[in-house]
Amino acid sequence: MIELCTEDHRGDPKVLTWWLENKTAANFEARIASDRNVALVAEREGQIVGFGLMDRSGFIALLYVSPDARFCGASKALLAALEEEALAAGVREMKLESTNTALRFYTDAGYSPDGDPRREPCGTYCHPMTRRIGPGA
Is pTM, for the whole model, over 0.85? Predict the structure, then answer.
């Protein structure tokens, strides 16, 4: 996140503190353990290179890849796997909030704006997006 989202945080310590304050080990453990969420990892050569988290309504809360896994298909594979999990649960519309950095990735994956960008308290922007999935999408 720090290495890949410089367009968003621009190295500003206040923005990074705000972004990372809920990214604790305990918070991740709780979210992964919750039956309300689906958590997936991407691996390469036995190493975790990506992580995705979606709630059972189809809202993608997190999708991160290691900087050295960028442009290797890990992000696309995680997104596709989350969408497959959503379809299996009967979800037909995915939702997420994109950073500026990830906006092109999600647009290229078929996601569309779902309202105006929202300015976060730290000054960065969040772009609500949606995508219909499944038959007739």
Answer: no
